[in-house]
Amino acid sequence: MATKPDLVPRCDVHADRSMIKHFGTAREKVSGAVTTIVIWQCPVEGCRQTFHGGRGYYDAASTYRPGRPRRCTSHKEPMIVQAHGDGFTYVCPVDGCDYTEPLAPKAAGKKGE
What we know:
With about 110 residues, the protein is mainly beta. The chain has strands at about 20-25, 35-40, 50, 55-60, 80-85, 85-90, 100. Helix content is about 0%, strand content about 35%.
């Protein structure tokens, strides 16, 4: 599935901040093949929120993840926080999909960068 072009996740805790892209590697357990992965991290000092396209949002320093990531009802992909109107919302990252869900009030803040 193609993703929407130029999609940059915002932190689901600090929605007024765009996350920063980082590259890493992962080794496939069975074949041993190494692949490049992209993760996004919140730039707010002390925030460990991370986004990965396969996992959704999570706290990078915690092995416990309460709840499940929000996923598109059609595509089952983890949803991404984006600016929308005067606030923020979760959007499906799949190109052509317009499914959205409201962002929880904990992450509401002024629209920023």
